[in-house]
Write the structure tokens for this entry.
Amino acid sequence: MIIDSHTHISDIAFWGEKFIEQIKKTGKEVPKPPSIEEHFEAMKPVDKVLVLGFRSNAIGSLIPNEFIKKYVDQYPDKMIGVTCVDPHDKNAITELRHNVEEWGFKGLKLGPIYQHFFPNEERWFPLYKTVEELGIPIIIHQGATGISDAPMKYASPIMLEEIAIKFPELKIIVAHLAYPWERELATLIWKQPNMYADISGFQDRPFNLYQNLVYFKEFGILDRLLFASDFPETTPGKAMDQLRNINRFAEGTELPKIPDRDIEALINTNAQRILKL
């Protein structure tokens, strides 16, 4: 079963002025979010899809969980909702419980670098305890982003180890291989059995992805990685093609190759086993 474990939907109506200004500061044009129909079309090559919510008061991007629910409810056999709450909200835990127990969301998305919080502060431990009790994973953006008002001080994956130790039944999936701290993350995943990562976000850095896969292979933890496209940044079809051609960087050299069986497991089975879908 092929599962895309990291995709987004949005509408520009949910982007505040501050967020739009932050995008402009990167030198890029403000993109038009793909339509729901475009998301569904892009997901045709995969069997199931995690659709992630996003809520950040700090940068002004507030995608309602209701928006995610309305979409996934149309395709319950394929689309899986992942809620997002801003830990700073007083009702964050209540909203999380409601979205999981009443609406059927299957995970929690957090983005400390966007939401401006240090994830290892004890004030957030009740949130993690709730997630652990609910039996769902956290998908956490613990790494860099191009947005300027997203301080790197919140992003080091090393801060997650304290959470992994404190909550051993909490499944932590680190998005984007914690770029640019991939090696630190590999060490964490190697030593903490409840930590995983998705490979989203490398559509423009294929050699970087190849290097990371080699590094994770040397640690013996390729089976702890989940396939993910980060749509709309790329599509799952293109992400699969990139993976299946990743060994081109080793052709004609003595550089190591990623075994085909490991690439196919990453595409076809890892996420299903890890997410228990």
Observations:
- Strands lie at 3-8, 48-52, 54-56, 61-63, 79-84, 108-110, 138-140, 172-174, 195-198, 225-226.
